[in-house]
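Hello,

Our lab assistant flagged a job as stuck in the queue for most of the afternoon. It eventually completed. Since we weren't sure the result was trustworthy after the delay, we are filing this so someone can double-check. Below is the sequence as submitted and the structure that was eventually returned. Let us know if re-running is recommended.
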Amino acid sequence: MSAYEKVANHPRFHMLPQTNQLKGLMTIIRDKDTERGDFVFYSDRIIRLLVEEGLNYLPVVEKTVTTPMDVPFQGVAFEGRICGVSIMRAGESMEQGLRDVCTSVRIGKVLIQRDERTAQPKLYYSKLPKDIADRWVLLLDPMLATGGSARKCIEVLQEAGVKEERILFVNLICAPEGALSMLEMFPKLQIISAELDEGMDAHKFLLPGLGDFGDRYFGTDD
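-- returned structure --
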């Protein structure tokens, strides 16, 4: 079984429903001729869909409320508190989508870059909520290729006391190799993604991909 098949059928890998609407949005942001304004607008729509889907994997408890008709309604309420952690810089593009859905949500930031001496991911900056160990974490990064930065970030979260089963990795596009390595390294991690790409080229760029997401979103690709 290929890496693609293993990820696509994995019980902890969750892809958005592959509707025509989603396929249309993904087509727009993958198009190299899409202008930055449209790229941002349609990326934001996908990000919001991803955040909404991610919330489905948070635990709930039963809750009874009374409607304006003075009738009890048996519903549910989210159990526990959440926060977001964006992997700088591209992950910051997903922060507003989380805020749009979860008002007053706390968001931490982590900067991880490749160490030129060792060629390994290295932590350069971390600012996390003080009580992050007591929260569910939506880890935000739009692109997952080899998974090196994301794996390092999860290790940073674990060192801060976050339980692995409380981490939901939310991203737009991932390579099968990177997703599989994360699922195998962290056996309680959940991944929520919009699409699973075919793989990577020799330079570890996603194929078919969409280029550098951060550059296209923030307008720094010139």
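-- support follow-up --
The delay was a queue issue, not a problem with the job. The result is valid. The chain is about 30% helix and 30% strand. Residues 69 and 186 are 47 Å apart (CA to CA).
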